[in-house]
Design brief:
heterodimer; A: 276 residues; Rossmann fold; six-stranded mixed sheet; four-stranded antiparallel sheet; 30% helix; B: 291 residues; mainly alpha; ABC transporter involved in vitamin B12 uptake, BtuC; 76% helix
């Protein structure tokens, strides 16, 4: 991990091209402005974490990058090309894979069929269905089971596998923690180094701040659709994160919102599903 | 013995009803489109067969070789244009659009083919010949053939959906369009393929009906669509084998109804349809649960 992070900081600092460049993105859900001029640049090999509370616009951001929402303003550049108007399936084929919030497996299909669908238009690369079975040891024995019959954690693993077999260059992970027990989540996040070792870039969205801080090489915090903080995890203080997350203006020492003045980041657990 | 004969005739005619119904069921199962023009499309299949036979003089039984691919192409094109445009607005719009399509087709046929009835293959041996078991049971080869075709079509569909790559994609898209897009799948193309298959089966149904009975421009809605709906609802929406079961139940109830009183044939079928709708609205064979 530490190696990855160093190469990453190089990529970010030597001024090489970002693989994903989001410029001034504004997205509306009807009248509601879900994202307000959000920009971000993800460099190859990074683990870019977007944190924020419920309704901050994190999922909307990821879904717009995947092509499932059209922005009202701004543009999305992938690998040097403007993909703002590109259909989601074209983006997927060109190397942007997403593990959607709530896993969204094909419930009536078996585990193996889910992976086969993911591999239908795969780019050439290291990930095969067999590789996924190696990554998640339990999966092969249960490949003929219907996805709907799996537990939440198992479904999440299959959803990750389904995205991996497409051999994406950028992997979008939307709220992996949602509805999973901490132990299960730990096990899933433990596979991240192996996934990164194959040269992927990861852009993830998390409500679970401590989890995001643990894996991220770069961090961005959203609040009500706006960016409130951006930087390397090592460069931001817990107080800054806390303030950005809850929207407090500096010196949060006596804030009643979270009742603490300890300066510790309060990682709010996953609370229900995020609309949008 | 009379009753045994009724049941047998009912089962056999159920094959025809299953043929009416399976395309309707497929389109609903995959894209949630209730295609109100389904029966009219079957009738178009019948008229195309009429034309093909008049021009090429191929035997009526082989007309499907030309008619089914033609209708499949029409299905793909209509799905990618008119029906998809309706789907983009809302599921309810598809109801209006397919209803409109039905009206347009019927009036188009009235305009260009007149209101006269037509039948296919009149005079050919397969239409009229039959064999007897004992003194009471007479089985028409044609009905037996239609039943066999229905079973083969359902088996083929089942195999295609469960084993082939495109079948897998169709099921995936039916489960979750958005997730399919994230896997690089253009669901509109997959919808087109599902519609092509549905229209192909409708064409088969039209040819079969044309051989079994007579069709006119309004046959699509007043007979085929109604029976297809009844079979789908009795059998269970989205279940392929349910359509066969539904068709058979409908056929048997009609045969028994006719035996009780000649004028109650269709009434009996609709009574069973209503009873199933009230007591088991998911149909006799409910579709397997989804995520």
């Amino acid at each position: 991990m530490s190696e990855t992070r160093e190469t990453v900081s190089e990529a970010r600092e030597t001024g090489s091209e970002p693989i994903l460049d989001v410029r001034g993105l504004t997205v509306h859900h009807g009248q509601l402005r879900a994202l307000d001029h959000v920009s971000l640049r993800v460099f190859p090999g990074e683990v870019y974490a977007i944190i924020g509370a419920n309704g901050a616009g994190k999922s909307t951001l990821l879904r717009t990058i995947a092509g499932l929402h059209q922005p009202t303003e701004g543009s999305i550049w992938y690998d040097g090309k403007d993909v703002t108007k590109t259909r989601p399936e074209r983006r997927a084929v060109s190397g942007i894979a997403m593990v959607p919030e709530g896993r969204r497996l094909f419930g009536s299909l078996t585990v193996q069929e889910n992976l086969q669908v993911g591999a239908t238009y795969a780019r050439p690369g290291p990930w095969t269905i067999e590789q996924v079975y190696e990554l998640f040891a339990w999966m092969k024995d249960r490949r003929t089971q219907r996805a709907a019959q799996l537990s939440g954690g198992e479904q999440q693993s299959v959803a990750i596998g389904r995205a991996l077999v497409a051999n994406p260059r950028v992997l979008l992970l939307d709220e992996l923690s949602l509805g999973l027990a901490p132990v299960v989540l730990q096990r899933i996040y433990a596979t991240l180094p192996q996934i990164l070792a194959t040269g992927l870039t990861v852009l993830l969205v998390e409500q679970d701040v401590s989890q995001a801080l643990r894996v991220a090489s770069h961090l961005q915090c959203l609040l009500e659709g706006r960016t409130t903080l951006e930087g390397k995890p090592s460069e931001v203080t817990p107080e800054e994160v806390e303030a950005a997350y809850f929207g407090l203006r500096s010196a949060p020492a006596s804030s009643p919102v979270y009742g603490g003045g300890s300066g510790e980041v309060v990682p709010p657990g996953p609370v229900g599903s995020e609309e949008a | 013995m009379v009753w045994v004969n009724d049941v047998i005739q009912g089962i056999l005619i159920g094959g025809l009803y299953a043929l009416f119904a399976c395309g309707l069921s497929l389109m609903f199962g995959v894209m949630k489109v209730i295609n109100l023009a389904h029966g009219d499309l079957a009738v178009i299949g019948g008229y195309i067969a009429l034309g093909v036979i008049a021009v090429t003089h191929i035997p009526v039984l082989w007309s499907f070789v030309i008619v089914v691919p033609l209708m499949a192409v029409l299905g793909y094109v209509l799905q990618r244009t008119v029906i998809q445009a309706a789907l983009n607005r809302s599921i309810l719009t598809t109801l209006l659009v397919t209803f409109g399509l039905s009206v347009v087709i019927e009036n188009g046929l009235l305009q260009f083919a007149s209101a006269n009835s037509h039948s296919l293959g009149a005079g050919s041996a397969i239409i009229t010949s039959s064999f007897s078991i004992g003194s009471q049971i007479t089985i028409a080869y044609l009905l037996l053939l239609i039943f066999a075709v229905a079973v083969v079509v359902l088996l083929g569909l089942q195999y295609f959906l469960s084993r082939s790559r495109y079948g897998r994609l169709i099921r995936a898209v039916a489960d979750d369009q958005e997730a399919a897009q994230l896997s690089g799948i253009d669901y509109r193309h997959v919808f087109g393929i599902a519609a092509a298959i549905a229209f192909g089966t409708a064409a088969l149904a039209g040819i079969a009906y044309g051989m079994y009975s007579q069709f006119a421009p309004t046959t699509g809605t007043d007979t085929i669509l109604l029976f297809a709906f009844a079979a789908v609802v009795i059998g269970g929406l989205g279940s392929l084998w349910g359509t066969l079961l539904g068709g058979v139940v409908l056929g048997v109830s009609q045969a028994i109804g006719a035996q009780i009183s000649g004028s109650d044939e269709f009434l009996a079928g609709y009574i069973v349809f209503l009873v199933v709708l009230v007591l088991r609205p998911q149909g006799l064979i409910a579709r397997r649960g989804q995520a």
